[in-house]
Amino acid sequence: MEKSIAVLTSGGDAPGMNAAVRAVVRAGIFNGFRVYGIYRGYNGLLNNDCKELNLRSVSDIIGRGGTILYTARSAEYATPEGVKQAAEFCRSLGIEGLVVIGGDGSFKGARELAAQGIACVGIPGTIDNDIACTDYTVGFDTAMNTALDMIDRIRDTAQSHDRCSVIEVMGRRCGDIALQTGIAVGATAILVPEVRYDIERDVISRIYEQKATGKKHFIIVIAEGVGGVIDKAKYIEQRTGIETRATILGHVQRGGSPTLRDRLMATAMGVAAVDILKAGIEKGEQTSRVVASRAGKIVDLDITEALDMPREFDTHLYEVAKEVSI
Asked: What are the residue numbers of the active site?
């Protein structure tokens, strides 16, 4: 049977996923594979929801947000029986390798499938940038630029009314969007889940210090994992007497056309994933890898090694943010 590979997107969608799918399909065909698209994440492996893709199947998707393969989470796949069923489905189509685009949860699913004899390579795709093994995840740059644009607009009205705006950006466990966007908008204070805070010291005092220098409008950026933006906005208004508004940007950060960086990184990672699968298939080796960006280079790591890595928050950049927000 002609050798085949497949690609799926899993977990939360991220801008750039389509660019990664396109790269996998075209690199796969270039290397002589038949390429299948699996729809709705691992559910597609359990429900026979797939389609062979050709060059034209992925035309003009590099600039589209979301994912043409759709995405979902699968409780059924998380069982030993589900993983075995998924592996049997892959074998029935002659699929020897699978590219999984998603986050840590998606990579855990890929590791289980690899243990059943289906070669798997993961591509980090999540707007949160919360995968420890890689410096960069597909979707992060677009999400930040979307948040940046929204906060810049909020700043215009905050300045017009001498207001304080408390803005929640996405990031449940990871404050990277809040930190980097907060620096880029000149936020008075940035609250992230990785750093303990005191609202009097880290927010109220900073507002008073800036007010003493003549500043009359303020931006507070808070990561989703910190939460409580509405209550914090009320507290700030009560303590300072400054009219304060709360805004939750929400899922607007997931959508939209991916930035150049996301398109480029997704493409480079997609091609690398196919190269890794091809090498493993030709050597008859069991492949269980993750593509990552480390120190500006595309590398690959064992999935288990990647999943076991502790994530490190950029405390230096956090201190930079405090220094420039005086």
From this structure: 128
